[in-house]
Amino acid sequence: MFGAFSLIFWTLTLIPLLKYVFILLSADDNGEGGTLALYSLLCRHAKFSLLPNQQAADEELSAYKYGPSAQSTSSPLKRFLEKHKRLRTALLVVVLFGASMVIGDGVLTPAISVLSSVSGLQVTEKKLTNGEVLLLACVILVGLFALQHFGTHRVAFMFAPIVIIWLVSIFSIGLYNIIRWNPKIVRAISPYYVIKFFEETGKDGWISLGGILLSITGTEAMFADLGHFTALSIRLAFAFVIYPCLVVQYMGQAAFLSRNLKSIPNSFYDSIPGPVFWPVFVIATLAAIVGSQAVITATFSIIKQCHALGCFPRVKVVHTSKHIYGQIYIPEINWILMILTLAITIGFQDTTLIGNAYGLACMTVMFITAFLMALVITFVWQKSVLIAATFLLFFWFIDGVYLSAALMKVPQGGWVPLVLSVIFMMVMYIWHYGTRKKYNFDLHNKVSLKWLLGLGPSLGIVRVPGIGLIYSELATGVPAIFSHFVTNLPAFHKVLVFVCVKSVPVPYVSPEERFLIGRICPRPYRMYRCIVRYGYKDIQRDDGDFEDQLIQSIAEFIQMEAGEPQPSGSESSSYDGRMAVISTRSIQSSTSLIVTEIEDFSAGNSIQSSKSLTLQSLRSAYDDENQPVRRRHVRFQLPTNPGMDVLVREELMDLIQAKEAGVAYIMGHSYVKARRNSSFLKKLVIDMGYSFLRKNCRGPAVALSIPHINLIEVGMIYYV
Q: What CA–CA distance (Å, rounded) separates 310 from 307?
């Protein structure tokens, strides 16, 4: 018992305390932690990203420059990694594998936490069978996942008291057991007992490390949840509260088992004094639910980050709290997690087998995190390769010993996280590969500006009043699908705006920096570009005023451009690529347009004037079920500024008239297929895998909250 406790003590000291609390918490990305945050940090300091949609303007974001040094120096290792695409692809695969393992934790944590806490009933209630305990655990799990859509903010006020009572309980029970059973257990803090443990147990002791690592399984979640707290608060809470409570609890169990070897299967519940058993059982069950809730929420957050980085299909993201930023709920993922968790709970029915799977998943993530941290030390912190190599070798040796022991448990349940991770990683990589190929097709088949300039301001067709918002993933140039519009449609809108909604490798983009506005072609063409930038933790909310913000941003850009000297040079190069950040603060204080707000009710009066009794009854029934909703309508007017340039006034007037005529959203309904000369594997990935994911995920129009009544879709086939 002395050797086992000494091993647990030094495991808690070296990995959670030293590696994570004192080192890894310093490698945050604007306060965010986790595998994907480290990857995002690396992509900003080196050209590791495989999706070529980043611009120089992105580097001017305030969150982009976060880190010890704003200017990153170029090292031979950095140039070597940037030069070889296969190495960057391998890095992405490693990151996706780590993210998949964290998602696997979201499946395994509720299963083992709830099942192990409920199994305490078998200690006192001898009549309770394994089937009844399993049924109770499944009921709790179903209730846990069913309540996710309400959001954690409704019950979050209970989390802190539950965790505090739980920590006080295990500390008190541990201290009681130390004093009562074996106070000499304090000597086991010495590393001498670790050496003695391995001398006596040999290979069996090494295999037992697969069980020892279960004492540190929540460590990675602590780093991933860094965005909800500050690094200082986590350091203080872990070092002065959580760490001492865990050490005393494990020390107390070791003291108890040194005198009660028969109680090893249920050591925790057997070590609880009889009078406080039921209160501790209740608080243990509640703590298991709180821990499971935290991991499930973290899984939603990770999938949201993967989607923002172009590595996960579009899913519905619901913001569950108006006051607490970052609390989200993903319905599809929630039910998938519930089905997988119930399948594992019912399939294994044994916390030992689930523990083998859980330990392997957590240890794999720690192993990958150590590798990414070594890259951060080199490329972000700009320390010497020797320091990074020392960190990597030291912690890889420790993690590798535990990981090798966990891999020995693959036949006894350890295969579960491997299978889950491979499935999730394949989904992520196929989606990223297809997205990258589709973007490259757009990039290499852009419409020539010379061709547009040759068509003239009318584009060779009739320009009718209105604004056409053409959505594209391209951040530069005109997408190939625009030529389909020009050649196939008899008329087009007088004002055209190419809108690109993209994610940048930062957690958050402030509203003041969200809009990038530019011009395409000369002024008479009335063609603009708008790039809307979001961070990987941002929530794309449908506030209903996107059109108004866009009009104000373009008007501000027109005014700003008029006050700047016109660039000299070739005509085609000067009409695309010039972008300006339009701040919402400058919009509010702008004198470009006069904004008047009109509030009305959504309930119209078109049927009230009808003489038909049937229509009137239907109208009254509709009004009873749907109460009138106040909506804000914005009307723009030009200020009476005699000093305004005539061309600027004419362009702003066209913009206002186009807005009054109406806004249409234009998107390409694309079909992605592999070329005929592609390899069999590529055809399998694109024609089957990527096509299946696109058909069964949310459409881009729905994901962007585009009103269906104003949507125009034009089909196009991409041969990639």
A: 5
DSSP string across 127-138 = T--HHHHHHHHH
**Measured in whole angstroms, how far is the alpha carbon of residue 607 from the centre of its chain?**
46
Three-class secondary structure of residue 503 per DSSP: strand
Distance, in Å, from the CA atom of 482 to the CA atom of 488, rounded to the nearest integer, reads 10
What is the rounded distance in angstroms from the CA atom of residue 649 to the CA atom of residue 640? 10
Cα 299 to Cα 73: distance, rounded to the nearest angstrom = 35
Instruction: Report the alpha-carbon distance of residue 504 to residue 538 in Å, rounded.
Output: 10
- Fill in the DSSP letter of residue 71: S
CA distance 162 to 156: 10
| Geometric angle at alpha carbon 546, from 544 and 550, rounded to 5° | 155
- What's the start-to-end Cα distance of the chain, in Å? 62
The single residue listed with the structure tokens 């708008």 is 530
Own/partner pairs, 433-437, CB within 8 angstroms, 24+ separation: 433/685, 433/690, 434/672, 434/685, 434/686, 434/689, 434/690, 434/693, 434/694, 434/720, 435/51, 435/310, 436/50, 436/51, 436/310, 437/672, 437/686, 437/718, 437/720
- In contact, 82 and 48? CB cutoff 8 Å: yes
pTM for the predicted model, two decimal places: 0.85
Mean of pLDDT values over 151-164: 78
Write the single-letter amino acid at 553.
Answer: S
DSSP label of 238: I
Residue among 500, 383, 527, 486 nearest 67 (CA): 383
> Concatenated DSSP letters for 77-107?
HHHHHHH-HHHHHHHHHHHHHHHHHHHHHHH
Which pLDDT tens digit goes with each residue over 535-575?
A: 888 877 666 678 888 888 898 888 888 776 665 544 444 56
**Tokens matching residue 646:** 């005539």
Whether residue 578 contacts residue 552, with contact meaning beta carbons closer than 8 Å, is answered with no
Over the stretch 334-346, which tens digit does the pLDDT of each residue have? 999 999 999 999 9
Give dist(CA 27, CA 377) in Å, integer.
9
Tell the residue number behind the tokens 């399998």, with chain if given. Answer: 684
Give residue 73's pLDDT. Answer: 64
CA distance 299 to 35: 12
